Target: Succinate-semialdehyde dehydrogenase
Amino acid sequence: MEINAMLTLTTILNDARAAQAVFAHYSQEQLDACARAAGKALYDNAQELAEDAVNETGMGNVADKTLKNQSKSRNVWHYLKGKKSTGIIERDETNSMITIAHPAGVVGAVTPTTSPSMTIMCNVMCALKGGNAIVIAPHPRAKKVSAKTVSIINAELDKLEAPKKLVQCIEQPSMQLTSELMASVDVLVATGGPAMVKSAYSSGKPSFGVGAGNVQTIFDVDVDYQVAAQKVIAGRCFDNGIICSGDQSIIIPQTHYQQVIDAFTSQGAYYIEDQREADKLRDALFKDGYTNPDLIGQNVQVIAQHAGLDVPKAAKLIVVKSNGRDDDVLRSEKMCPVLSAFAYKDLHQAISIAKTNLEVRGKGHTCVIHSNTLEHIEKIGAALPVSRIAINEAGSLSVGGTLQNGFVPTGTLGCGFWGNNSTSENLNYQHMLNVQRIGFTMSDKSVPSDAEIWA
Model:
């Protein structure tokens, strides 16, 4: 690492610790004001930052990134406000326990190229809510929009006279600087590819990483396929398919297969059944088992051009039938508006297909079920190794938390031990706190005998 870069990072970290030492003594009201300001800054500048992200990264589209910036900032603040995050946060009279929250200190956040501004905002809001400073290490392909996002947030924090350097961004990121940051902070949040997350877990610091998404969507026999298809299309096409919780494969009852496909094609999907045509898509879409970097976050027309396919200009989505082989690369994650389709004979086979696909990539992340039969929902849910399941909704538009479901709003989705992650939860401010518990002996509490305990 260059000496100047190392000195810059040392300065950043020293400034962060100095700012956090002051911020740690802020009241709950002051912490909340700062967290709100960070979210409102993104909300108010959503379109400008969306335009900057698309121009710099070449991924996604402005309209959806704008909506993502707005909805996520609104949802996260709605979740955060009113919750205690400093000092005594709970008095449990029943168990004679007092719970006290303390800041983690300096948070390091490694952010992706796919959703730079939104991810930074989520991490910053959660860090500030707990009285922490935060240093962002952005993906090099999104360094300009990331630095601008932090600058806009800091302008709002300055209005509140928050400590300077509370939120900082490495403006010239590199692998070396990111690795050094990982080894220097008090807690690390890593949102990105498997290699980067593995590096975070090897940093020697407490880390929260995320796994790859490969969302399996199972259709039951008792749903309105037109409605279900509309939801899947909306979610799969959102921001040109770069969201990790977006539907990746549709697993369809064999008895209703054509009916489901018709529902998709009637709403703008282009269907590929011929495996010679599917092979063209496979060859263009994947490199070494992963989505071709040139096609991540691109629209259907760009994908079709690369694959040499004649696809209608109005097509929103490509649905391609799998060849059914266990080694079909279409079982993997596709970070663009492409869905693979599978047919199943019974629920047992549907679960088996989903499990096989998850073993390729995406274990621990998300599943979607379109069904109105609770027994089937519970059976599928209990059988699949995923941390979250959306019912009758689009994965990318639901499991990251909305105002109409119970998922915690976030930009970082843990995949649990299934996905080699330290948490299966939606990352939030509680993951950036030290929680202290004070326990008192309850002398008047009845103590059971050994015979009663072992009965």
Summary: The chain has two domains: 3-210+427-438, 215-400. The domain at 215-400 is CATH 3.40.309.10 (Aldehyde Dehydrogenase; Chain A, domain 2). The radius of gyration is 23 Å. The mean pLDDT is 95.
